[in-house]
Amino acid sequence: MKKTILLILILTTTKSVSQIYFSPSAYMYVKSEVLFVQQDINLGAGSNLYLRNNSQLVQGTTGTSTNSGTGTVSVYQEGTTNNYSYNYWCSPVGDPSAIGNGNFGITMLSRPTTSTSSLAATILPATNSDGTASPLAIAQKWIYKLINATSYSQWVFVGGTTTLAPGQGFSMKGTSGTDGTDPEGTGVTNNPGSAQRYDFRGKPNDGDITVNLLANNTTLTGNPYPSALDLNAFLLDASNTASGGTAYFWEQDKTVNSHTLINYRGGYEAYSPVSRNSPGIYTPATFSSYNGDGTVNNGGSISSLIINRRFSPIGQGFVLNANANGIATFRNSHRIFVKEAPGDSQFERNTSKGSNTKKEQSNEEAVEELSYLRLNTIINNQFTRQLALAFLSTATDGVDYGIDALNMDDDLPNDVTFRIEDGSYVIQGINYDDTKKIALAVKVATATTFKFFIPEVINFDPNQKIYIYDALDDSYHDVKNGTYEVSVTPGVYNDRFKITFKDATTLGVENNSLKQFFISQDNINKNLKASNPNNFALKSFKLYDVLGKTVLSKKDLGTDENYTFSTTGLSSGIYISEFLTTDNQRFTEKIVISNSGK
C-alpha cells in the first residue's frame, strides 16, 4: 500500500490517512483535531508528531502494533499540582528503540518551552520527596506500579527506570510552585498553580495491549493510547470478562499535606459501564485515613469530585479488580476522539483545562438513559458512604457483570454497602419492582451512629417514595424527603436495614390506578400489545433480549390508549419489554415470543 511521505505539514483539519512515513527530521503539527491513521506510523530519525490543543492520534490497526522508527510523538497532559497527592497514570507512549510498543519511564517526561520544544524533566534522587514546577523536577520516590496484588505491601517501586510495559499504570505525586511559561501563546501556562503540564514524548502506543490478571487481585492499568478511550467498550468487550467489568479511580483529599501514610486520606471511586451506550454510574470515594502498615483507619469524608468517567482521557490510570484468571486487552476499536472537558472526558486533577467541549465520535449510537438513586450514609458524623442503586430491566438479584461494583475500601471498620452473593458492593442493579426490599450490609466495630438519606434520584418516578426499613422495630423511614438516624451497637447486620418502596403500615391506601398498564404478546399475529387506559404520557418503549441487547425501540409514544409493535423476524425466546413515562414511571413485563404462532 502506498505510504504518505511527510516533510513539513501543519494540520488544522481532521485528517485520515492509510499509513504515514516521516522522513528524518520531518514533523507534523496537529492542532485541535484528530489524526486518524488506518495502519502503521514510521517515524524517521529526528522526526516529530506534535499533538496540540486537545489533538489526538487514533489508529485502525488490528492485532499487534507495527509502529516503527526512532522519531517521537509529543502529547501533553496535566496532573495535580499538589506534591503530596498521587495521580494514577498510564503512558500513551513508549521507548522508540524497537518496532511496536516500547516500555516507558519518567525520564521520557519533559517541560514544554515552546509549542514544539521541551526540556527534559529532572529526576530527583530517591531520597527527595518534593517535585517542583519550574524547573520541572519529578520525585521518583513516589513512582510505583501495582500488578496482581492482594495487599498494600505489594506495590512495586519503579523510580526512574524505563521498565513500565505498555498498559502498566504507575503512581506519581504532583509538583509544587508555578510555571508561567505559555508554550503555545494561547494564555494557558504550564502550571498556573492548579495543574501541572507534562510532555509525553516517545513512540505512540498502538494496537492490542494486553494486561495479565489473576482472580481477586488488583492491577493498576489505564488508557494506554494518545487518544481518549471508551471505557464502556473496553470493560464490556466480550474477551475482557476477567477484568471484573468495573474501573476504580484513586482519589485523595488534597487538603491533607503530608507524605506520611498515617495522614493520608483517600479512597476509590467506582465506575460501572452498565451498558455499551450508557453514561455509566459512578460512586465517589469515601476518604479514609491509613495506618502505617497501609490498613484503613476511621475518619474522613466523601469526595466532592464529579467526573464523567466513560471517556478516559490520555494518560488516565485506573485499577481493575479481576474476577478470574485471564487477560484484558486494550484494542484500537476501544479508542475514540473525545476532547477533554468537564462532562465529556476529564483527567483527575484539581481543575480541568476544559475550555473546549467539542466531541467527535463516529457511528456513536444514542446515549441510553439510566434510572438510579444514590443513598448517602453519614457515619459517626465523620465520613459519608455513598451507594448507587440502578433500575434495569436486564438486571438480576445476583451479581451482574458491568453493573454491580465491588467495594474497594472494604477495610473500613464501620460501613454500609450492598450485600450480593456474599460480596460487598457499592453499586447494585436490580429489575425494579416496588415490592422488593434491597438489603444493606452494615458492619460496626464500635458503637456507631448512621444517618441515611437520598441526595439524588435520576430518571425515576418522582412520586415514588423511598424508605429505609429497620427490622429491629419493624419501622419504615422516608429517606427521600428526610433522614433516618440510628445508633447501632457493634456487630455485622446483613438483614436488618433494607431499602424499600412501600410502607407496609400504609399499604391499604395504595393508588391502584398506577397499575393500569398492561403488556402482552400476541404470537398468532406476531405483535406485542400495550394497553394504556389511564393515558400515561409515554417517553419510550424498549424490548430487550435475554442478553440485554435492545432489539426494538421507539421514542415519544404520546398518550394513546393502545399500542401495537410488530415482533415479526425476532427469534423465539424470552424478552423483557419496558415502557417509560415522561415522569419516569417504568412498566416492564417478561414476554415469550414464539415463531410457531402458538
From TrEMBL:
Domain Secretion system C-terminal sorting per the UniProt entry, residue ranges: 525-593
One protein family per Pfam: Por_Secre_tail
The protein, known as: Secretion system C-terminal sorting domain-containing protein
Region of interest called Disordered, as start-end residue ranges on this chain: 172-196, 342-363
Ranges of compositional bias, category Basic and acidic residues: 342-362
Lineage per the UniProt record: Bacteria, Pseudomonadati, Bacteroidota, Flavobacteriia, Flavobacteriales
Signal peptide as annotated in the record: none
Superkingdom of this protein's organism: Bacteria
NCBIfam families: Por_Secre_tail
Keyword line: Signal
